[in-house]
Structures are given as C-alpha cells and as structure tokens.
Design brief:
The chain is 0% helix and 58% strand. The chain is built from no helices and 19 strands. 37% of the residues are buried.
Amino acid sequence: DLKDDADNVRYDDSSKRIYVGFGSGGIAIVNAADGKEIGSIKLTAHPEAFELEKQGKRIFVNVPNARHVAVMDRDKGEVINTWKTDLAFGNFPMALDEANHRLFIGCRMPSKLVVLDTESGNVVAGIEISGDPDDVFYDSKRHRLYTICGAGKIDTIEQADSNTYKGLTKTNTADGARTGLFVPERDTLFIAVPHRGSQQAEIRAYQVE
C-alpha cells in the first residue's frame, strides 16, 4: 500500500528493488521478489520524474513544488542534497547521461531543457523547448535528446559536448501527446496520443535516425 498518487516507477536490477514516487512527498522502496514495501525516503513535496545511477548509489528526483532536484543516497535512505534549476521552474521530466555526468531537466515555466552537472549540481546549459514538456529521453548512441511536449511537438536536441547543446528539429505530433517511451534497441520513440475531439487515441511510433 503506497498511500496515494503513486506515479513514476524505476527498477534497480542490481538490488532487485523497485522505487515508486508517491503521495505528498516520498519514494517507496519495494522488494521485487515479493512486492512488499521495505522502506521509503521522505521528500518535501510530491516527486515527479526521477533517475537512478547505475554506477553509483544516488537517485535524482524532480520536486517541482519545492523548485529543486533532490539528490538521494540509496544506501543511506535519505536526501543528501538539493539542487536548484535556476533558469526555469516546473521541473517535471528528467533524463540522465551518467557517463558524462549530466542530468537533463524539462521545465515548464518557462519551457526549457536545463542541464545540470551531477558532480557539482551546477547548471551548465539551458535550451528553449516547446510548451508543456512531460517526457525526455537521452539517446547515448546519437548524443541526442528527445523532449516530448504536450504542445504537439518532439524537440530533438543535439549534444555537441557535455556543455554545448542546440536544437535540431521540431517534429509535429498531436495536441496533448506528451507521454512516451524511447526504445534504443529499436531506434524507436513511442508516443501516446490522447483522444481529443476528432483526434483518436493511439500509440504512434517514430523511427529515429
């Protein structure tokens, strides 16, 4: 029982644990073997997207109502730092480039992709994006980011190096289509399109090149 408003979910294969953001402020820890909650880490407000390090023990969590990114230690089970996004607020989607120590935060006020250095917590870049970003994915093979925006766009951003980013294309989708999944093994970005007026609900597949 995760109380209320269970939202984002991540799985840690090394520990066989599931992490679930929920409620007014917490990340629940669930044993994947039996589905039982074995603990939780408290936050100051409801968590949105979060990412787990594979080579480290940290969890990075968007906490938009607190206007920061919370940094958790999985072993200690506590928040060890908070980072401000500075250039924008309303931080909802997130992606991680662990190899280059970069965290990508999609913000809505104003619409920007903010890039943080995960070693220092400092903001290193900010790129204007389309409105209502709700998902962002990092393509390590192509060094690109795909930001899915409810304004009906996929913004593709190029990573020239760790601190340099530029917008490449804006692909039309549909109004309100802001939830997706990038499958790198298939070079495919799937996007959920909602039913709105004459627009039918559907899943669209976009091939990346």
